[in-house]
Design brief:
This protein is of the alpha+beta class and 99 residues long. The chain has two helices and four strands, in the order E-H-E-E-H-E. Strands 2-3-1-4 form a four-stranded antiparallel β-sheet, with helices on one face. Helix 1 packs antiparallel against helix 2.
């Protein structure tokens, strides 16, 4: 199964990236993930379920230790990716927007 994670850390500082934001981006960029996209208002990465979950764990721990007061994240199953099996029977369907 492949997952996509989108996240932001707060508090924001438009003049200079806060330490917690830099740490969060370093964690994601160092993880074994695909399609990493970092930006000033949000970050996205994709990868296998185990790699994404491990990266989210490290992201939460390290960014909070570095001063984040809030971490917002969303994790979506990428159901239409080639080679990804459909969700098991009876599992809830998850749309691209997470609903």
């Amino acid at each position: 199964m492949r997952l996509r994670v989108e996240f932001t850390t707060e508090p924001f500082d438009l003049d200079e990236a806060p330490r917690h934001a830099v740490v969060a981006r370093e964690v994601i960029q160092a993880a074994d993930l695909d399609a990493v996209d970092v930006g000033p208002f949000g970050n996205t990465a994709e990868g296998g379920a185990g790699a994404v979950i491990a990266a989210v764990d490290a992201l939460l721990r390290r960014s909070l230790e570095a001063g984040a007061t809030r971490v917002s994240l969303q994790v979506n199953v990428i159901a239409d990716a080639p080679g990804v099996p459909d969700a098991p029977e009876g599992a809830p369907e998850i749309a691209e927007d997470g609903r």
